[in-house]
Amino acid sequence: MESKQIKHVAVYLRKSRDEGEFDDVLSKHRDTLLALVNNRNWSYRLYEEVASGEKIESRKEMQKLLRHVEDKMYDGVVVMDIDRLGRGENKDWALIKDTFLYSETVIITPNKIFDLEEDNDDVSFDFMSIFARLEYKTIKRRMRQGKEAGARKGMWTSGRPPFPYYYDKNTRSLAVDETNRPIYRAIIEKYLNDENLIDIAIWLTNNKIPTPYKIKPNGKDKGWSHVTVRRLLKSDVHLGYITFGKTRTKRGQVEIVPDEERIRAMGNHEKLKTPEEHEKIIERLTKNKLINPNARRNVLPLSGLVVCEKCGHRMQLRVGYGKGKGKYWTLLCNYVYKDGSKCEQKGKQLNDDFYNALFERIIHVDPQILKEIEIHGVRFNDTKVIIEVKEQDLNKQKRALEKLYESYEESVITKQEFVERKELRVRQIHGLEEEIHELRRTLENKDNFPTITSMYKRIDKFQEIWNGAVTNEEKNKALKQLVERIVYDRDEDRIELTVCYK
Ligand SMILES: [Zn+2]
Question: Is the pTM of this model over 0.70?
Answer without folding.
Answer: no
